[in-house]
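Continuing the series of single-chain predictions for the mutant panel. This is the parent chain; the variants come on the following pages.
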Amino acid sequence: MRAITKPTVLLITGATSSLPQVISGIVLVAIGIAMIFLSITFIGKLLRTLMVGKAKSLLQSSVARGPIAGMIVGTIITVIVQSSSTTTSLIVPLAGTGVFSLRQVYAFTLGANIGTCFTALLAAMAVSGDDAILALQIAIVHLLFNIFGILIVYGIPFLRAIPIWGAQRLADAAVKRKLYAVAYILGLFFIIPVAILTISKFMGY
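Parent structure:
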């Protein structure tokens, strides 16, 4: 993969080499994020095209067997495509058309979160040198965090119902006003992480 992507990397870095270092870094990050979104969108559309007929029926029957089966299927598909975002982009439209229920997608998504950990493990195993053990440790922490999180949240009926309740309330609110969805994304992925990092910095962690 490195040999395949190297010419593109050199082309993009060469095109931004004349810019100041900080601006060049920002541009490269923006290009990288854009390429990730484009790749995920393309793969998601391709998978949705392939998921018709017998393949769609097989996926539907597997997920419909129960939450454990849904998690296993979500894990396997994510390990194959090595992207939980791609797996999620495959299942969400099917849920939107009524093929899967919210509870089925819930279990499937949890499996996708476990499956994406194997991508991190594969990446860690490719690291060599003195820091290789650190990369493997972080990947294992990532895997164990997801597994224990699922065991705790999904294993306790009261906690298991909270994400479904929250998803239903947020969806109802977003249908009425899109601003609620925007506020949720900004708060969860930007404001809260920045606040936690700022507090941790002042506390010396």
